[in-house]
Design goal:
The chain has 3 helices and 12 strands, in the order E-E-E-H-E-H-E-E-E-E-E-H-E-E-E. The chain has 179 residues and is mainly beta.
């Protein structure tokens, strides 16, 4: 899956490049007898949510944009345990547009969801529900993936950046990681 920002919305496309959906501001779902009326109204976004949807800053000089093909794989923190990252946590980024965080201690704590990327290093991910009971304060590698708005490579390291251009985490492929 990929996405393209249009003048009036976002176009989501499948792996074959065919359009899947066009998201238009102010759009509404078609009425359905099995859907509550309250679920048919457009969401109301607060200032924080609107800020999180703005166009992220470009990749810093020196980083090569991560493409969809290069993102697929299992990724670990580049230094084994990046500041505050749970030991043994990783993220599996799958070709089908899904991702799943993993953690030695408790996979239920790790995020999972769906992702899309363009060829300019832009990354969009959404989270599925997850249990947070007994998860502890450590951040998962998957949380860094979920928080990222841009992805680029510094050599073989995958550098994930938030919308302001700050690094969320540096990752290496599973076969390059020395735990």
């Amino acid at each position: 899956m990929a996405f393209e920002v249009l003048a009036a919305g976002v176009l989501l496309t499948g792996a074959d490049g065919e359009p899947l959906a066009k998201l238009i501001p102010g759009g509404q779902p078609n009425p359905h007898p099995n859907v509550a009326e309250s679920e048919m109204a457009p969401p109301v976004l607060g200032p924080g949510q609107r800020a999180s949807l703005r166009t992220p800053k470009p990749l810093p000089a020196g980083l090569t944009p991560a493409t969809r093909a290069r993102l697929s794989g299992r990724w670990y923190a580049a230094d084994g345990v990046a500041g505050g990252i749970a030991p043994g946590s990783s993220v599996d980024v799958l070709d089908d547009g899904s991702f799943r965080g993993r953690q030695d201690r408790n996979d239920a704590c790790a995020p999972g969801g769906h992702w899309a990327a363009d060829d300019n290093g832009r990354l969009l991910s959404t989270s599925l529900p997850r249990a947070l009971v007994d998860c502890g304060p450590d951040t998962e590698v998957g949380d860094g993936f979920l928080a990222a708005a841009r992805a680029g490579f510094d050599g073989t390291e995958l550098v994930l950046l938030d919308a302001d251009g700050g690094e969320t985490v540096r990752l290496v492929r599973g076969d390059e990681q020395s735990r």
